[in-house]
């Protein structure tokens, strides 16, 4: 988390929306072999927890249950050029969206894991539109073998540490020039968030 409080947010609904919209993150934890990270889809329960699954062979899988972990969800980010400022005699920076979640992790049973998988499928099949794929199209033998290869987890979030660094220290005129520059540079997602989240 960035140390400047200007870049923080206490808006829980906004943070839940970021987790929902990004839907992917990194899980960090200490293991007997040292710190490890895993990359995984995420599903917010909406009541202070995040669910995810990992391959059973992942270095974290055998040690996560009952431990404290850290999940990082990274949103859009981009280089910010001084060419977009009214006063160009300064230095570049980097704007970004990131949410750190710290909490206690527990391993889910097979029923919870199956419910998680169905929730992932419904969410993302709906999101991409068109004719949806259904888990019922998968032969039962293939579906059941899936559980031999993955494990589900839920983290109870005990601390939220967001960073929404979007040139808040600049004037509104500079921020609009930055957003326009980001649009032209192909970073329209960050430009959109800058225009909608920064007063």
| SS-derived structural category | alpha+beta
Q: Please estimate the helix content.
A: 25-40%
Low-confidence stretches: none
Number of strands: 7
CATH topology: Pnp Oxidase, Chain A
Question: How are the SSEs placed, and which strands pair?
Answer:
Blueprint: H1 12-22, E1 24-31, E2 34-41, E3 43-44, E4 49-55, E5 68-80, E6 93-107, H2 110-128, H3 140-146, E7 150-165, H4 172-184, H5 188-197
Antiparallel strand pairs: 1-2, 1-5, 3-4, 4-7, 5-6, 6-7
What does this structure look like?
This is FMN-binding negative transcriptional regulator. InterPro entries: Split_barrel_FMN-bd (IPR012349), TR_PAI2-type (IPR007396). Pfam families: FMN_bind_2. The protein is built from five helices and seven strands, in the order H-E-E-E-E-E-E-H-H-E-H-H. It has 199 residues and is α+β, with helices and mostly antiparallel strands. The protein has a single domain (5-169), classed as Pnp Oxidase, Chain A, CATH 2.30.110. The protein has a seven-stranded antiparallel beta sheet with strand order 2-1-5-6-7-4-3. Helix 4 (172-184) packs antiparallel against helix 5 (188-197).
């Amino acid at each position: 988390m960035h140390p400047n409080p200007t870049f923080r947010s206490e808006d829980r609904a906004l943070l839940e929306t970021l987790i929902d919209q990004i839907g992917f993150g990194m899980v960090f934890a200490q293991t007997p072999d040292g710190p490890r990270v895993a990359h995984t889809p995420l599903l917010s329960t909406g009541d202070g927890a995040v669910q995810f699954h990992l391959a059973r062979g992942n270095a974290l899988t055998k040690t996560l249950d009952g431990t404290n972990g850290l999940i990082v969800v990274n949103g859009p980010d981009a280089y910010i050029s001084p060419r977009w400022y009214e006063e160009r005699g300064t230095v570049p920076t980097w704007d970004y969206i990131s949410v750190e979640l710290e909490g206690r992790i527990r391993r889910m049973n097979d029923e919870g894991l199956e419910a998680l998988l169905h929730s992932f499928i419904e969410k993302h099949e709906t999101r991409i539109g068109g004719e949806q794929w259904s888990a019922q199209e998968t032969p039962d033998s293939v579906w059941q073998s899936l559980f031999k290869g993955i494990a589900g987890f839920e983290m109870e979030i005990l601390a939220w540490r967001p960073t929404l660094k979007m040139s808040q220290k600049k004037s509104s005129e500079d921020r609009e020039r930055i957003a326009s520059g980001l649009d032209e540079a192909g970073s329209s997602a960050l430009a959109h968030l800058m225009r909608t989240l920064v007063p």
